[in-house]
């Protein structure tokens, strides 16, 4: 993962309920040269197909037992 500060970030662990619409809103707002980091309590494998279909690349890192970080950028 990059050591730079992301342009956008979202901690899905703080969202009460299903976070998918919040994640999609962040992706829609992401500029071509911006980076978005998603923080989640589990590896969000179902999201990977969505990211690929929408033209994003991603890198996932497990940073703690209950914390995964996914760095997302446009291809």
Descriptive notes:
The protein is globular. It has a single domain, classed as Translation Initiation Factor IF3. The mean pLDDT is 95. The protein is α+β, with helices and mostly antiparallel strands. The chain has a 4-stranded mixed β-sheet with strand order 1-2-4-3, with helices on one face.
Helices and strands in order:
Blueprint: E1 8-11, H1 20-29, E2 36-40, H2 45-53, E3 56-64, E4 67-74
Q: How are the strands ordered across the major sheet?
A: 1-2-4-3
User: If you consult CATH, what is the topology?
Assistant: Translation Initiation Factor IF3
> Which spans of ≥5 residues are poorly predicted at pLDDT below 50?
none
The major pleated sheet works out as: 4 strands, mixed
Mean pLDDT reading = 95
Based on Cα principal axes, name the global outline.
globular
Number of domains: 1
The total of helices stands at 2
Radius of gyration: 11 Å
Assembly state (oligomeric)? single chain
- What proportion of the residues is helical, as a percent range? 25-40%
How much of the sequence lies in strands comes to: 25-35%
Q: Quick one: CATH class?
A: Alpha Beta
